[in-house]
Amino acid sequence: MTFRLTRIDDRFALVDANGGWHDLDRLASGMDQSVLPEASMLHELSGSLDASPADGTLAEALADGRVGVPVPTPRNSLAVGLNYGDHAAESNIDAPTSPLVFTKFPSCIVAGDSDVHLNAEHADWEVELVVVIGSETRNVSAGDAWSHVFGLTIGQDISDRALQFAAKPPHFDLGKSRDTYGPMGPVVVSTDGFTDHTDLAITCDINGERQQDGRTSEMLFDVPALIEYLSGILTLMPGDVIFTGTPSGVGAAQTPPRFLRAGDVITSTIEGIGTITNRCV
Ligand code: ZN
């Protein structure tokens, strides 16, 4: 049974098909709130959610600011640049022939609906599918890769373009890792929760105006290819996350370039997962 995991008041919760949330510790007492739960347990518990009353609705919890990052702080938080051909083209950079990987330092990751503290003149938006790793993953082939995925969530790879390209050659890490530049959430959905988890509509609106509109099937290096590549270099651990790149439509590529300003509202949506909304301050 599909699970939808979130965290409410810093505690794990499962979200049912009607949008109600259930405190995980009430369903399975003795939860370690600092460690990613076993996917097998979540699949099983999700089958019995209808039998217990919900503790509230996710929508209310979001409105009340009670929803946090859906997984504990990842040990590693990796991201992939230029992973959609149309975004590479709009950036006037040749499409990479091997994955272009950088770090979003875990300290930049905040709850899905958090405010983004701009702190820079050239902050830009990038909606991304985020993969959460579910088990120790080392030297895994593409064919086995999905079995190591805990679930999928929505991320914003907010990018300070000036800082990203301040050095030559450019270093992406710092420009992508300012505090609050990694909103993620609101739920992690297990891969059996989609009609086709390899082909999801992905969009980003600024102040209600559509900027990005793509499909995750357009990735140059798909999720299995990324996991095969990365796990051949470093061991991925439960709770590690991979931001998988963004489709075209970022602000820096517009004429003239457009950057985020205080008061702007970023709305990022992925089919089958939901929406995150970030206010720029
Ligand atoms: Zn990105």
- The number of helical elements comes to 8
CATH structural class of the largest domain: Alpha Beta
- CATH H level of the largest domain: which superfamily? Fumarylacetoacetase-like, C-terminal domain
SS class: alpha+beta
CATH topology of the largest domain: Fumarylacetoacetate hydrolase, domain 2
**What shape does the CA trace take?**
globular
Q: Whole-Å distance between the termini?
A: 39 Å
- The average pLDDT score comes to 96
Number of strands: 17
Provide an overview of this structure.
With 281 residues, this protein is of the alpha+beta class. It folds into two domains: 60 residues, no CATH class; 203 residues, Alpha-Beta Complex (Fumarylacetoacetate hydrolase, domain 2). It has eight helices and 17 strands. It is globular and about 55 Å long. The protein binds zinc ion (ZN). Zinc ion (ZN) binds next to strand 5.
Topology summary:
Layout: E1 4-8, E2 11-15, E3 20-23, H1 24-27, H2 39-46, E4 56-57, H3 58-63, E5 77-81, H4 85-90, E6 100-103, E7 109-111, E8 123-124, E9 127-133, H5 142-145, E10 149-156, E11 159-160, H6 161-164, H7 172-175, E12 182-189, E13 201-206, E14 209-215, H8 223-231, E15 241-243, E16 265-270, E17 274-279
Parallel strand pairs: 5-15, 7-12
Antiparallel strand pairs: 1-2, 1-12, 2-3, 3-4, 5-6, 8-11, 9-10, 9-15, 10-12, 13-14, 13-16, 16-17
